[in-house]
Amino acid sequence: MAFESEKTMFEIYRDTVYSGRYKVVYFTELDEHNKETEINRAMAGEHVFDGFLKNYRKDEAKAVIEQLLERLNNGERLDAQEIRRALAAHLAE
């Protein structure tokens, strides 16, 4: 099991206030400058998927998330199980 400092909390959501596009927020990477704004945007949006990424090879996980966002923003419907399968190697349990 990973320690808290070895994983990154994230959420994929649809922005229902501004653009209607699917986005991701990496909560544990926010700083005091943008924390409140980003959390409020995610909370106002439509929740799609959340979890924790292992920090080991996190850049690869972020690339997978970007591909998922592209698919979602192009109109493809993905459920939580499909997203979990795509990220399986990168999720911290």
Shape assignment? globular
User: How big is the Rg?
Assistant: 13 Å
The tally of strands reads 3
Structural class: alpha+beta
The major beta sheet can be summarized as: 3 strands, antiparallel
Unreliable stretches covering 5 or more consecutive residues: none
Beta strand %: 15-25%
Integer count of domains: 1
Which percent range fits the helix content? 25-40%
SSE ordering? EEHEHH
Distance between the termini: 7 Å
Number of helices: 3
- Strand order within the widest sheet? 2-1-3
Mean pLDDT: 93
List keywords for this structure.
93 residues, alpha+beta, three-stranded antiparallel β-sheet, 37% helix, globular
Tell me about this structure:
The chain is of the alpha+beta class. It has one domain. It has helices at 35-44, 58-73, 80-87, and strands at residues 7-14, 22-26, 46-54. The chain has a three-stranded antiparallel beta sheet with strand order 2-1-3, with helices on both faces. Strand 1 (7-14) and strand 2 (22-26) form a beta hairpin. The radius of gyration is 13 Å and the shape is globular. The model has no long low-confidence stretch (mean pLDDT 93).
How would you summarize the topology of this molecule?
Layout: E1 7-14, E2 22-26, H1 35-44, E3 46-54, H2 58-73, H3 80-87
Q: What's a quick, concise take on this entry?
A:
The chain is α+β, with helices and mostly antiparallel strands and 93 residues long. 37% of the residues lie in helices and 24% in strands.
